[in-house]
Structure formats: structure tokens, C-alpha cells
Amino acid sequence: MNDYERLADIIFPDILETIDDLEKRYPIRNLPDGACVTRFAPSPTGFLHTGSLFTSLISWKMAKQSNGVFIFRLEDTDTKREIKGSDIDLLTQLDIFGINPDEGFMGEGNPEKGNYAPYRQSDRANIYKIVIKDLIKRGLAYPCFCTPEELSSLREYQEKNKLNIGYYGEHAKCSKLSPSDAISKIEQGIPYVIRFKSRGNSLNKIKVHDLIRGDLELSENDQHIVIFKSDGLPTYHFAHLCDDHFMRTTHVTRGEEWLPSLPIHLELFNTMGWTAPLYAHLPVIMKQEDGNRRKLSKRKDPEAAVSYFLELGYPTEGILEYLLTIANSNFEEWRLQNMNSNIFDFNLSFDKMTLDGALFDLAKINNICKERLSRLNKDEFTLRALVFAKQYDNDLFEIINKDVDYFKNIINIEREKDNPRKDYEKFSDIYPLIKFFYKDKYDELLDSCDVLPFNELLNKSDVVNVINTYKDDLGIDLPEEDWFNHLKEITVKCGFCDNMKEYKKNKEAYKGSIADISEIIRVSMSIRKNTPNPYWVLKILGKEEVQRRFNLIIKKLGY
């Protein structure tokens, strides 16, 4: 046994398995040619970030459309930042968006799914130790005994002398210890971490290929990174190496902020003699602020949390569709040609992904979600609204359950046609927009209204005259076109103009226009200037309730 082997055995005396044993335990997957094995590997340190949803969507879609495998792996080696229960929240929120793993960690207390377990890094300690023991035996990893004070002093020296910051080359003091010296320190009980012994030189360039950015030249890694901490867990860089190899990951999709780490990861794979997965570094989602771009921030931007959209009732397919517009430049053209198709019928491509960080556009999300909600039929819409309301909106939940068919009639106004109405961006919009349909809610609105929002240019007496002329002869049993003609007759009878072109030419000749008549009806029925088509509002309310409301308005106006 040579000195390196003796050092490895002293550090890991209980590790008897070898890398060959791991290769047999986790064999090459039997998948079709071109199948992608991808993974989403979050840390349980908080909420699901909108950027993480974007990354997981790309990984999931690439696996699905290639008949591959999408893995959920929990990277929980940063125990100081871990938030209890966030692992379950991550899985739950992914599930809401329909992004379900084929294998992986399935939540605390649930059995893991798949043959490449365990999928939680804290349960994979022996795998990392087997690989690190192999590196130590080959003189490619070593224990480092430097104290925090020594590392801080080294950094100050490098900054003062304008040197590259880090533990490398001549600055990697412990890399020069002989195995015997290292063993002596360990036997003395001196604390240590284990570092990877890089053989790189930052002055050299390496050529790498990114699936989105193409061929790149990056500085070779020279950092002797920590691969095993004093708490007995690996660092991200090293765990990712072992996990991606033994889970047989073929494609790694991650944010472009990880691009500087790529030389480290490639050197680790090369050192082990393993084939590295293909990397695709996705554009970071940006926010415009004071004329400058910055990353979407967990601290500053509520929309950085996926829960923001769920709590407001944004349709999940609308959020995913927006993310696909960021992902592929040809998605929007495809959508225009396939307005009613499932977004997952679209074939995602790395070649069509943008290189620049996409600006987060809430207005665009709202427009997409409004379009998606408009294309749900009344039964789908009601079911989805009920699910949302049960968790987030008690007022909406109550009015739906009060009379489901009545609710369906309201939201079905001009819905099921080629170009449906687009009233709602999100489910939280529903209650404020439709509560006037309900008698008790209408009365509350009227009582709390100091000034009715009629056209200020109209006299109260003219408004009351219109109401009195119309309220006893509503015409709501007529077809819509005949009802409108009837409304024109009321318009003329009250001294208003029934033709907008004519009115614009000669406003002085009339008290107002047919638009004012429609507004008087809208405001009287809803205490709002904007409502769905008043013909359908009147029909849904019914003659008795319409006349009751007109009478209340007349009273409110003091007549």
C-alpha cells in the first residue's frame, strides 16, 4: 500500500466499495437514440423561483419530447440554508404546473421513484466518499488544514497584489503536503476539508460547446476547490459530478450564471475519465428598473416567486406559455397558427433559444392569460375558478356555490365563439368584476356609492327620464339585434341620437347618444361604467331584478 492509499484509508476507513461497484449498481440506461435524461435539482432553501420554473420546464419538455427521463433531485447539502418543508412545496408547485418527474425524490415520507436512487444528496454520502477516496488514492485530492483566518489572509494578500483570488498553484499550500504530513495532522485531530487538485492553468483556454451559445473559449480551471466539507457532505460542484454521472444525465439545462463554473465541472469529469453531459445555459430572466436591467430578484420582486401567480389565480398554462415565448423565438408564430392547441404540442429546440436575458413582461403575461382563460368553456372555467376560490378567495367560493348554473351563465357571456370575450386575466379578477350580478352585493355597492358614475354632462332629470321610459318595456325577451333596435327607439324617444356618426356631426341637437343610453343601463345595473354586453346582463338579472335596480337608482338620484 503506497502513502496515498494509506491516506485515503485513514480518511475513509469504512469505505470498501469502489467506483467499479458503483458503475455496476447504476448502469447505462436503456433508452431510444436521442433520448434526453434531464434533471431539475433545486436546493430546499425557499420558494420555487420563476426562473427555476423556467429551467425545470425546459428540462421536463426536452425529456418528454425525446422519450427520455426527467429526474427530480434534491440538492440538500447546504444544511445551514435549508428551510423545513420547502422540498414538499417545490414538488407541489411543480405538480400544479404539470411538471412531474419520471423518477426521483417524491417528498418526505414518500418512497423514491426510480432505479438510480437515492435522489436526495444527503442520502448519497457514501457514493461521494467512494469517488473522493479514489481521487485521494490517485493523488488528485487532498486534505486541506487551512483555517478561516489563513484563507482570509491569503485573500487580502491576493487583493493587495492584484492577483487572481482563490486557492490555486503556489497559493494552494496544503497541496504541497506529503501524504505522511497530512496523516500526521489528521492524527493530531486538526480539522480539515478535502480539495480537488486541479492541474489547470487559468492562462490557458479551453474550447467548450454550449447547446445554446455554440462554441466558446473559456479560461481553464486552476482552482483547488473544496469537494468535501468538514460536516461530511460534498460541495455542489462535486456532488453534481457524481450525481449526473451515476444517474446517467445526458443534458444539463441551467441558468447562464453557471457558465463560469463550466471549466470546473469539465475538469472534474475529465479527471474521472467520465463523459460529461451536454450543457445548455439558459438566458436569465431580467427586470427593467430605472433604465437598467437586473436579474429578477427574490427580495425585490414579488413575481419572482411562483406562489405570487398561484395566489392571484393566474392560469398555469398561461404562465408556461409565456415562459415558452422566452424559450424559443418561433413559439409565438406557432401559437398564432394553433390558438387552441396544447402548448406541449410545440417542439422545443435548443437552436431557437435566445442568447440574451429576457425582460420579464407582466403585461404580456396578463394578455396571454386573458387569452387562455377566454378559451375555456363555461364548465372548465367554473371548475378551475372553484378550485382557486376554495383555497384563496372565500367571497368567490361562496357566490359560485350559491348557484353554480347562475355563475356559469355570467361567465359564459359571449364566451363560446370564435373570438370570445376576454374579461379576466386571472381568477382573482372574477369576484370584483361580477359581484354586481348578486342582489346583496349590488345593494352594498349602491349603499357605499356617494356619486353614481353617470356621464357628468347629463342632467339627472334626463337620466331618470331614460330609466322611466325604458324600465317598463325592457325588450329582453327579444333576440339581441331586435333588442338593440328597441333600444334605439327608446333613445330617440328620450331626445338622444341613435346614430353615432350623426351625433358627432351635430351634438348640440341632442341630449346625448345611444352610447349614453347604454351607459345609463350599465351604471344602473352594476354601479360600473364597464360591464359585459348589457343585453346579456339584463337577461341574466331578469325583469324583476332589473326593475328593482332601476327604482333604487331613481331613489338614489333623489326622484
Structure report:
With 559 residues, the protein is mostly helical. 45% of the residues lie in helices and 9% in strands. It is built from 24 helices and 12 strands. The chain has helices at residues 3-11, 19-25, 50-65, 86-96, 125-137, 148-160, 179-187, 236-246, 262-272, 306-312, 316-327, 331-337, 362-374, 378-392, 394-402, 404-411, 430-434, 439-448, 460-471, 480-493, 500-505, 514-526, 534-541, 543-556; strands at residues 37-40, 69-72, 103-104, 141-144, 193-196, 205-210, 214-219, 226-228, 251-255, 278-282, 286-289, 292-295. The strands form 5 sheets. It has a 3-stranded parallel β-sheet, covered by helices on one side. β2 (69-72), α4 and β3 form a beta-alpha-beta unit. α1 (3-11) runs antiparallel to α5, α8 crosses α9 and α14 crosses α16 (404-411). The longest helix is centred in the first third of the chain and has 16 residues, at 50-65. It starts with a helix and ends with a helix. The relative contact order is 0.08. The model has no long low-confidence stretch (mean pLDDT 95).
